[in-house]
Amino acid sequence: MELTPNMIGRLCSVVMFGCIPLIFLVLGLRGRTPTPRRLAYLSLFCGLMVFVVPEIVLKPFPEHHSTVLISSGIARVIMSLTGIVLAGIALATRRSSDMRALPPIAGLIFCVLHLFAGAGMTIMGFIGKNLQPENNSASWDYSSPDGKFEVTLPSRKWEVVNFANLNNKAGFLHRGFPNMKAVVQSVIENQTEQDFDRIANSFHDSGNENTIIDAKDGLNAADQRCSSFIGIEQSEGKELFIGYSITWCAERKVVVVILFEGVFQMKSQAGKETERQAMKTAAETILYSVR
């Protein structure tokens, strides 16, 4: 991990916020016998740890840190539940030490907040783990029945389907999260490279209003002439992840047009970014593999 000034700043903030709960931990551990006051201090330590987030040093919600989020989230849930129990005992026995109710009540409140934060972190970790880019070792190749083209699918989660409402040569649907699909819109035979350029230009002209993530014109992964686009489209107030590729298979003299679409389901920006990365990886595998 590269130690950048931004990361050093985040690390310093973690250390600074960590000093406050550390004080209550020291106060709670002083002495040999458990007293309501010490239990309340330990409860405050468990609750105030909600403000100590070392995970920010790793940047929140990246796909390859999902295991860290899950482990940390579970640890926080256990810590907050322990703090809630300690606060309850301190409240029940506080009269024996003439202690006010404020410390255990404050500890209880912070522990409940910590409980929700830990549960949310655990959930985001599992979501991020499910959204990790497809394992290329599990990819598979689809060959059209007439032998006109082949395309690589990212994983076994992609299945061949027949979209009844689309006039396509083949359809592919991602069984899982995020929501993605691809269709072979057309396979045009007896085409020249000039025909390919004409078709590609017509697609580019129709997509000028979309936000561009990536656009290429050259050779694809199979050394075939390819013109492609990946971007974001605004449709009925919603964002759609879209892509297309026009590929000229010189040996077969066919032009293959493939469309890709992904529907965002996450509401948060962090969740959408994770979806976007997963969609981009899948789109590049499919659109750049036609041969």
What attributes characterize this protein structure?
291 residues, alpha+beta, 7-stranded antiparallel β-sheet, 44% helix
Rg, Cα atoms, Å: 27 Å
Q: In percent, how much strand structure appears in the residues? A: 15-25%
The end-to-end distance, rounded to whole angstroms, is 38 Å
Task: Please give the oligomerization state of what you see.
Answer: single chain
User: What is the general shape?
Assistant: elongated
Percent in helix: 40-55%
Main-sheet strand order equals 3-4-5-9-8-7-6
Uncertain stretches of 5 or more adjacent residues: none
The chain-level mean pLDDT equals 81
Largest sheet: 7 strands, antiparallel
Number of strands: 9
Count of helices? 6
Structural class: alpha+beta
Order of helices and strands: HHHHEEEEEHEEEEH
In words, what does this structure look like?
- With 291 residues, this protein is an alpha+beta fold.
- Helix content is 44%, strand content 24%.
- It has helices at residues 5-29, 36-48, 66-93, 102-130, 193-206, 269-287; strands spanning 140-143, 150-153, 158-161, 170-174, 179-189, 211-219, 225-235, 238-249, 254-263.
- The strands form two sheets. A seven-stranded antiparallel beta sheet has the order 3-4-5-9-8-7-6, with helices on both faces. The protein has a two-stranded antiparallel sheet with strand order 1-2.
- A hairpin with a 4-residue loop joins strand 8 and strand 9 (254-263).
- Helix 1 packs antiparallel against helix 2, helix 2 packs parallel to helix 4 (102-130) and helix 3 (66-93) runs antiparallel to helix 4 (102-130).
- The protein is elongated.
